[in-house]
């Protein structure tokens, strides 16, 4: 199980909490790896601290994309590309640094009940309207539909490796949406 956690460069305390709680596998029989997806930032001190953190833990995957709410789709796509290029995994969990994950229960479920392929699961959102104003606004040019395609909300999306591969193919032809959860739908 590979766990990709979206994190902001300045959220070092959250990453540390994850590393010392659910983010590290302490049992040899249950194996997972947790890495953090980080974007670029103009704050040189935060970037310096992040570089030191990465030297210490070696679990930060950094992107040239600027940190920002509407660049999350780029960060996720970068994480998927990194995972497909450098990791061997059967399943991936895409999560955020403000979410608690129980990898033990997840691995037990995957071992006993989960299909080995075509797995895409999480909190399913159906008939979610495309908002045209406010923080989550999506322009007509970006998406002309009234409703998003069904998608799982981003607190935790569990996928088999073949689904991640399909997303990578999709990313090559579909421009990112501002709303990263819907982009993963």
Automatic annotation (TrEMBL):
GO molecular function term, any single one: glycosyltransferase activity
Keyword Heme belongs to the record: no
Enzyme class: transferase
UniProt-listed Enzyme Commission number(s): 2.4.1.-
Entries under InterPro entries matching the protein: Glyco_trans_31 (IPR002659), Nucleotide-diphossugar_trans (IPR029044)
Pfam family, one: Galactosyl_T
Protein name: Hexosyltransferase
Lineage: Eukaryota, Metazoa, Cnidaria, Anthozoa, Hexacorallia
Cellular compartments annotated: Golgi apparatus membrane
GO cellular component: Golgi membrane
Keywords: Glycosyltransferase, Golgi apparatus, Membrane, Signal-anchor, Transferase, Transmembrane, Transmembrane helix
Any one of the GO BP annotations: protein O-linked glycosylation
Topology versus the membrane: Single-pass type II membrane protein
Family statement: Belongs to the glycosyltransferase 31 family.
């Amino acid at each position: 199980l590979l766990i990709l956690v979206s994190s902001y460069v300045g959220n070092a305390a959250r990453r540390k909490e994850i590393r010392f709680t659910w983010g590290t596998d302490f049992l040899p029989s249950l194996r997972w790896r947790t890495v953090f997806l980080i974007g670029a930032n103009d704050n040189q001190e935060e970037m310096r601290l992040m570089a030191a953190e990465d030297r210490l833990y070696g679990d930060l995957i950094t992107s040239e994309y600027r940190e920002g709410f509407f660049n999350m789709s780029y960060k996720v796509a970068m994480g998927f590309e990194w995972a497909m290029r450098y990791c061997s995994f059967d399943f991936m969990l895409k999560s955020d640094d403000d979410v608690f994950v129980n990898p033990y229960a997840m691995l037990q479920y995957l071992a006993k009940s989960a299909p080995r392929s075509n797995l895409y699961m999480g909190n399913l959102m159906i008939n979610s309207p495309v908002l045209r104003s406010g923080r989550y606004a999506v322009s007509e040019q970006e998406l002309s539909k009234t409703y998003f395609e069904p998608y799982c909300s981003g607190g935790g999306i569990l996928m088999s490796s073949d689904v991640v591969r399909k997303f990578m193919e999709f990313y090559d032809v579909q421009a990112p949406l501002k709303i990263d959860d819907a982009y993963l739908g």
